[in-house]
């Protein structure tokens, strides 16, 4: 399967960024979701509104869920970050946001984060996860709120 979005050079950033040209060859009739990772790791590029609208329209036209990786959402320098769920209201109920505290709170390696979406979906994910993986360790659960408040040892 080909990449959904083609890459093009962004001269202002001096790096590659995704274009807003979705590819029909990226999906199959049985496709249920679209997984989009943030392009700013490692390039520093941020999805602009036309690119996000292209992704959202592509998913909406095909009734796909959007699973969007926001783990680097805080790293955008002078660029404006736009959450995909704010671009096209029709996709909000079919969007899951994956995020972590590894970078934003300097908890690299602690493997603690969250999934945001409809309550029913989150409940189903929690039920599934409780039977497939362990929970975050005690130290990681205690460190996350402390780091969020700016605590330093």
Please give the radius of gyration in angstroms.
Answer: 17 Å
Residues in β-strands, percent: 15-25%
Q: Main beta sheet, described?
A: 4 strands, mixed
Number of helices: 4
Mean model confidence by pLDDT: 77
Question: Any overview of this molecule?
Answer:
- It is a single chain.
- Helix content is 25%, strand content 22%.
- The strands form two sheets. A four-stranded mixed sheet has the order 3-4-5-6, covered by helices on one side. A two-stranded antiparallel ribbon has the order 1-2.
- It starts with a strand and ends in a 5-residue tail after the last helix.
Task: Write a compact overview of the structure shown.
By secondary structure, this protein is α/β, with parallel strands linked by helices. It has helices at 40-43, 49-61, 119-129, 138-148; strands at residues 5-10, 15-22, 33-36, 65-69, 95-100, 113-116.
Could you name the key traits of this structure?
153 residues, alpha/beta, 4-stranded mixed β-sheet, two-stranded antiparallel ribbon, 4 helices, 6 strands
Topology:
Blueprint: E1 5-10, E2 15-22, E3 33-36, H1 40-43, H2 49-61, E4 65-69, E5 95-100, E6 113-116, H3 119-129, H4 138-148
Parallel strand pairs: 3-4, 4-5
Antiparallel strand pairs: 1-2, 5-6
């Amino acid at each position: 399967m080909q990449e959904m979005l083609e890459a093009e050079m962004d001269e202002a950033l001096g790096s590659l960024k995704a274009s807003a040209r979705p590819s029909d060859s990226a999906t199959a009739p049985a496709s249920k979701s679209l997984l989009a990772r943030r392009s700013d790791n490692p390039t520093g590029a941020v999805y602009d509104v036309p690119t996000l609208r292209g992704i959202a329209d592509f998913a909406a036209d095909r009734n796909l869920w959007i699973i969007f990786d926001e783990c680097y959402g805080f790293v955008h320098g002078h660029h404006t970050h736009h959450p995909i769920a704010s671009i096209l209201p029709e996709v909000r109920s079919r969007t899951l946001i994956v995020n972590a505290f590894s970078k934003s709170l300097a908890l690299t390696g602690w493997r603690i984060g969250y999934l945001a979406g409809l309550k029913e979906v989150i409940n189903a994910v929690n039920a599934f996860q409780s039977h497939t993986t362990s929970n975050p360790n005690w130290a990681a659960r205690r460190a996350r709120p402390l780091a969020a408040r700016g605590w330093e040892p």
